[in-house]
Design brief:
By secondary structure, this protein is mostly helical. 61% of the residues lie in helices and 0% in strands. It has four helices and no strands. Helix 1 (12-35) runs antiparallel to helix 2 (41-65) and helix 2 runs antiparallel to helix 4 (92-103). The longest helix is centred in the middle third of the chain and has 25 residues, at 41-65. The protein starts with 11 loop residues before the first helix and ends in an 11-residue tail after the last helix.
Length: 114
């Protein structure tokens, strides 16, 4: 995790955001351990959760590092790469569709004719 710019302590909102992310990591880890080796709808929940969490982590790193993070270094690279995680390995929207159809029982999304 990035250090605050110029060695400043984390602000209360930054500490809250970091605590929230750590809680999400713990919840995702626990869910993954309970799922076991069999792929299921839980795998879509995990993929979506981890993808969104990694995006939020990259953005928080940039926020904590300050304006200099937008110029160069690991924080800048992380912020630039973060949106790609939502596309790689199955888009977040596809994962949401799987969760909606298989877990929530929503109707399938209409498919267009070829």
């Amino acid at each position: 995790m990035a250090r605050p710019a110029e060695g400043r302590p984390l602000s209360a909102p930054e500490r809250d955001a970091l605590t929230s992310l750590l809680a999400r990591v713990t919840a995702a880890k626990t869910m993954a351990q309970r799922q076991g080796p069999i792929a299921s709808t839980a795998a879509s929940l995990m993929k979506l959760g981890i993808t969104e969490m990694m995006f939020d982590v990259a953005m928080l790193r940039g926020d904590i590092a300050g304006p200099a993070a937008m110029l160069d270094g690991a924080d800048a690279a992380g912020m630039l790469a973060a949106p790609g995680g939502r596309i790689a390995g199955g888009t977040s929207q596809v994962q949401r569709n799987i969760i909606g159809e298989r877990l929530l029982g929503l109707p399938r999304e209409p498919r267009s004719a070829p």
